[in-house]
Amino acid sequence: MKRLLLHVCCGPCSTEVIERLALEYEPTLLFFNPNIDPPEEYERRLGEARRYAEERGLEFVKGEHDHGEWLDAVNGLEEEPEGGKRCAACFELRLTAAARKAKEFGIGLFTTTLTISPHKSANMVNEAGVRAARDAGVKFLEADFKKKDGFKKSLDLSKEAGMYRQDYCGCEFSRRRGGIT
Predict the structure, then answer these.
(1) What CATH code is assigned to 2-177?
(2) How far apart are CA 55 and CA 166, in angstroms?
(3) Is the whole model's pTM more than 0.85, yes or no?
C-alpha cells in the first residue's frame, strides 16, 4: 500500500476518511491544529484523535500547538465571516505544515479530513492543499470527503466509537459566534 499523511482536524472527522483511505493507502495521522482554543478543547480533541488512531493501529503524530502562530496568521481577519478569508488563512497554515511534515517523513502524498465537514468549502481546502504541496515538493490528494454521505457516515462511526463531538470548528472566533465551520 502507498503511504499517505492525513492531516486530522479531529477524531470524529477522521473516522470515515480513514475508512475510505485505508482501502488504498497506509495513512499516518498528523494532528496539527493551532487554531483550537481554549487549551482544554485542544487537549480533548487531541485525545480523541489519538485514541482512534491507536484503536485502528495507525501511526499518530502530534504537531506543535502554537496558538500565537495561528493568531498571527489570521491577524486582521478576526471579523471575517465563517468560510471567509480567516478560514482560508487557517487552512493555508495547517496544510502548509502538513505538506512540510509529509516531506520530512518521506511521504510523497498528503490530504486532510477538513473536507468532510458540510460547513467547509472543499474547493477552498483543496486549493490550499495544492499550493502547500507544490511549495513543499509533495503531492496533495484532492478530495471532497463529504460526498457519498461522508459526513453522515462520520457521525455514525464517531457515535459508535463513543467519541466526543465538538460544536464549533475550534477557533475562538467561531466559538463566539456559535457556529460550526
Answers:
(1) 3.40.50.620
(2) 20
(3) yes
Beta-bridged to residue 27, according to DSSP, are 4
- In the chain, what are the helix, strand and coil shares in percent, each to the nearest 5? 50, 15, 35
Domain borders along the chain are 2-177
Distance of alpha carbon 94 from alpha carbon 132, whole angstroms: 9
> Per residue in 48-80, pLDDT tens?
999 999 999 999 999 999 999 999 999 999 999
Give the separation between CA 165 and CA 158, rounded to whole angstroms. Answer: 8
Which helix (H) or strand (E) element contains residue 59? strand 59-62
Instruction: Give the C-alpha separation, 70 to 119, whole Å.
Output: 20
Contact (Cβ atoms closer than 8 angstroms) between residue 116 and residue 151: yes
C-alpha cell at 148: 457519498
